[in-house]
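Troubleshooting: if your tokenizer reports a length mismatch, compare your output against this known-good record of 304 residues.
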Amino acid sequence: MEYLARRHGNLVMHKTMYNRSHQLKAAAGRMLRLIEGRPHAAGDLLVFNLHSTPERFMPKFDRWLRDLKSDYTLYSPDVFETFYGEKDNLPNPDKPGVVFTFDDGLRNNRHALEVLEQHDARGLLFVVPDFYRFPRAEQEAYYRKHIRQQPHAGLDGGDEEVQALSAEELRNWAARGHTIGAHSFSHTMRADDSDDKLEKETIGAIEAIEEDTGVRPVHFCAPFDSLFSTSERHMELLKPHIRFFHSTFPGSNSDQPNPLFIRRVNMELFWKAGAIDFACSRFEWKRWSAQREAFNQRMFLNLV
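Known-good structure output:
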């Protein structure tokens, strides 16, 4: 089987399902879990980000949610309004909270949304209008060109893993209480976009989703590494249209809370449990501190 690592947001093929880096992170995560436990402060909000969620991983996802609920409160995306507004009104301030987001709007995300509903929670889908507007027969080619360039033998095995939820399906999930966010227009957004492309990837994505689904997104997440894909010009265009911008950097959302700089923990369901613990650890979050600060300066401090 093959394993995919992230490089500027694209997934690059390795020869084994769990390469040496993943094995080391899994071992380190197990050790850190023993030392730190789950080190997140009461009242903090962890935002987890997944991509493909095949049906065969749903028993694992269900077990994970049951385990999480012993130490965290499982929230729906509407908690962002409270967390960044009247934080004292959080339903359970005595525990850290968790929200699940899903990038790309893949058809197999429906399985994860169903499991979340079983736990009285809802998810946040970041969708790509240009992707879901393509005919289903052509979506795999689009997916391979713009979203995930290489197949994963243990993950990308069926149509649902390379095709998008349709506009009608998105409307139905929204009606069930899930949230639709924008993930750029074509998943090709870059920090050095021309003015025309910049507007298309930001406002164009929001307007397309509203036109197709009747839902106007107030959440936005750029594709790839946030520093690689997003400039202050993008943010200035987005500010009048959104309330929440989600980054690709992990970290505490209670530390200098900013609804336009939400920290998210990227992970995948096929990861080993120790690797997920590593992604949530203080050590890993500290490792990303330079990227978080660079993004903060670029977008909000005008220092770079």
